[in-house]
Amino acid sequence: MLLLGVRRTYALERLIDADCPIGAFEENLTEKVLEKHIAPSGMYTYHLNKLAQKFAEIRRKDMINAQRKLAESRECNAYIENQKMILEQKSQEEVNELFAAAMGSTCAPKKTSIKPDYSKYRIVKRSKTSTSSTPTSSSPSSSSSPTSQ
Q1: Exposed/middle/buried for 140, CB within 10 Å: 0-12, 13-18, 19+?
Q2: Has residue 100 got a pLDDT over 70?
Q3: Whose CA is closest to 6, among 45, 53, 14?
Q4: Coil, strand, or helix at residue 124?
Q5: Fewest C-beta atoms under 10 Å: which of 41, 62, 112, 149?
């Protein structure tokens, strides 16, 4: 719409309202198109100034974000290097103890079973001879005769 000349004011206002990264504007060569086709006429200086401010603001925010990310990565790298130096200074035994402590704290506690205390019982040996008593029962032999009525 900018190049065709149809509703240029509307197109410039949409560019001002657009919320996208500066890479999108740079990829489409928006600034060069504005300088080449819109700026020479002098009619749209207000919109061009607004767009220039917008591009500067977006670049400033991108620069701040990039510096913040760089600082965070430097802090992270410095922390890692510091931890490496600390680990190198510790002896291998200390590292093993730390590892064992860390593994002990992350493992699930083992269930312990209580074993009975056999010390309170007395051991008695069984005798090899067994006494067997067989009861003898005498059954009276009585003969019964069938009776008739």
Answers
A1: exposed
A2: yes
A3: 14
A4: coil
A5: 149
